[in-house]
Amino acid sequence: MTTPRHEQHREIIDLYKPLAAEKNRRLVLSSGAPFTPTYVQSQTRVPDPASLYESRVKGRHVALANPVKESTTNAKKSKKKRSDSERIKRVEKALARGKGKKGGWRIEKAVERFDLFIPLHRLWMGYMSELLDLPPPLSTSTDRIPNPASMHAKLVKADLHGSLLTVRQSRNPCLVGLSGIVLYESENAFRTITKANQIKLIPKQNSIFTLAVPLHSTLAPSSAGAQTPLPTPSHAESDADLTTVLDKPYLEFELYGNQFCYRSAERAGRKFKAKETIEL
Length: 280
What we know:
two-stranded antiparallel sheet, rod-shaped, Rpp29/RNP1, RNase_P/MRP_Rpp29-subunit, ribonuclease P RNA binding, RNase_P/MRP_Rpp29_sf
């Protein structure tokens, strides 16, 4: 077996070994006889060192030392640290701007009355009637009976301001049985007003709520066939007109607070998956 000609003269060249000490000889560098090709050709033991220099060394970048590179882990840590500091600065600026606006959700003590928010609750019932396409009260068609399973996808994204919520179970026994109209929904709590004219802050975490939805539509049918909202009752009307969803036929749904810790705007654009859950 013969060895190819170009492999017969292959030799490993160490470009980083120290210069050979030559006595009584002065190192001269000039454009006519540059140091690099002269030195490389003198250190190679091949028949044609000039061609080897032209093909292997000339015109190429040869690193004389390994540069110190920053590790990928350190680079990621420094980048994350900068992003965290920028985020903290943005939050601090936002808090400084909204410092004087705190308490905007509060209401005056004189208007903390349950009957004043009945119109808001009736408006929410009309909103549910339109959202869930509820049948009119005198409808006898079995096709228009609402299917609770098809209502779940709409209810998890619905706006609950004005709804009537009741705490069925809670890790805090003092909250069980509280019922009121939702005035404000945050990410972690509901702020409601009870029939005793008291504002209650009910946390969502570790609580199970009952949501009542009217069985029939509360919208008045018009001559054109479309439904229009019922007129809002005034304060001079009798108490019989200030009814809630619990005074009429209704459907009852359970809301698990641990799975509901989102703001109203976030729930509207979020995708929920039907999963079985066990609340202990």
